[in-house]
Amino acid sequence: MDYSYTLLILLLPFLLFLFIGLIGNKMKPQLSGVLGTTGLLVITVLSYFTAFNYFTNKTGEAFKAIEAFQFLWLQFTDKLIIHLGILLDPLSVMMLVVITTVSLMVHIYSMGYMKGEVGFARSYSFLSLFTCSRLGLVLATNIFQMYIFWELVGVSSYLLIGFYYERPSAVAAAKKAFIVTRFADLGFLIGILILSFYTNTFDFNLLTSDDGPAIAQPATAVFMGLSVTTWAMLLIFMGGAGKSAMFPLHIWLPDAMEGPTPVSALIHAATMVVAGVYLVARLFPIYHFTSPDSLNVIMYVGSFTSLFAAIIACTQLDIKRVLAFSTLSQIGYMMVALGVSGYGSEGLGYMASLFHLFTHAFFKALLFLGAGSVIHAVHSNLMTEMGGLKKYMPITHITFLIACLTIAGIPPLSGFFSKDEILVAAFEHNKMVFAVQWLVAGLTAFYMFRLYFNIFWSSNREYHHTPHESPASMTIPLILLAVASIFSGFVPFHDLVTTDGLPLQTEFHAMIAVPSVAIAVVGIIFSAMLYFRKNPKPESIATSLSGIYTFVYHKFYIDEVYLFITHNIIFQFISRPVAWFDRHIVDGTMNLIGNTTVFFSGAIKRMQSGHVQWYIWYFTSGALLLVLLILYLN
Amino acid sequence: MNLQAEIPLDYMIVLSTIVFFVGLLGVIIRRNLISMLMGVELMLNAVNINFVAFNHYLFPHRLEGHFFALIVMAIAAAEAAIAIALIINIYRQFATVNVDDVDELKY
Question: A464 and chain B: CB distance < 8 Å anywhere?
Fold first, then answer.
């Protein structure tokens, strides 16, 4: 099977980015939208075709990684070689399908949502850039190529968050996202350098194969009590944690909701933020075989983040922020699943994590697009200004309900299957983490239905403009994504994407499934009691817990802690003395040299009077003095 | 010819020194460009006196000093031509030959 056409999947969005970016202003806005969407449709079809071919043409027992395209880009030395290429394996092919599907939905949706915006063409060129870099990230054959596209993803995220650049809050959010993820990427880069220094390769196939340099001869050097491989893997995870907004690097994601809603759906819910999960999954054999300690770190970080974000999500009023924290929480699930996973026949967690990534992409994109549809109708982000919308927006209502049921894990929707697998994997590995994730499942159901009831039920308020259902370009993606959310759980994932490419035996655990559905139902009932009809109970609970409520509402003051650390400690005690040293000592030395020169030239410049006879006088007297001096010395 | 006996070399040197410094003084204190040029000519002639005198008194059988004196005269003529051309241009530009008024090129 020849897969060289997959190069088009990468090139096409890049060309679209250049084309729409360069001459988008010259053509009609609608045309650039149609162009971008058509281009993406082609890419999506190509990706589906690739996935179909890859998963049906299996040679031998296991799925093999295929290098569809490879060329030598940089050769520094014999060993330090950087290739650019396209790697097809179950993981990357699965990601291709997810990314192109969600991206296509977002492209179609943006035609309606962004209609009449000033930067319509600009948004399509940036969306194409994002699609290109995100696809490049998953198709990368080596960690260095991945890093390049990783940074490109960061750039396009920055551009899209700051899309409304005349709004100061959007600019601040874009900067925050870029700086936080860039800070994390510093760790990623150092991790890459350490790893490749000890293994002499960047290539994923070599790094993750059983007899490759990373696993067969792990580096034995020890630094501060941990092996260098563990350090490298932890630093690489730091990059992943930054992109995937794991605690404590999560602060950028809620602010990133300043971008247009379709962008939030595409980047900050479905595709970009799971890059960290993808990264860990990609390097999973190294994590598993050489540094189980870092897998434990990943498990705890993921578990903590999911609980932490779920608690915050229960108090937020901005519907996009609720969804942002819900994303954090769900990515925490994926990280937990990777952290508890074994290899081969015990690789349930790995499979469950990617399964959840797969289903989450659809239902979270659906939630965001539904929220966008609501925001489009009500012109507000706050759920306090919504209510009773179900009779105005029937399609949005139904699809949103499906998405909420899916994320809550109600069978037989897709979220149930993937979350159940994660809980099973967690149960087998670590009971405490399982308990936390079980609790989070209940919280998830609670805050999602709080959102749902507040938007679509609650009070029948009066609106200035009667809200109306969104145009077809917005509702069609909603319906398609709802279908995907319902049925993606039936994909035989355990046969397709596993740690070693071999099918995995999974079984249904009623022991786990029944309690997890039960707690979800409890969460839904609880939120229905509080929010189904407008009543004073939520306020009274909030007031009775006022201290804790305020604390949680302000996201545990993590942002304030960061501000305190940066402004009051780093700026005050490091930057300011260094700046003082620079301004007074370094600049002072230079100024002293300059000022001395200026002073003396000022004193003697009058000699250059323009009077020729004075010059002769100086010259003659100088010559005479020299003569006298020589005579005297002799 | 028995000049050596009557006029010693020292006299020649004293004469040329006096002429040289008269010329130098003229260059330094005279404000008129033409007068300054005359001072320069005096200085050149003082040098000529030295050349000829040293040649005559110290190496009477050789001619280099005489030749140098001739070359200096030729150079002086050329230099005078250039200097006068410059002075004419200065006069056209500034409508004066007073050197104190020609002081544009300064700090």
Answer: no
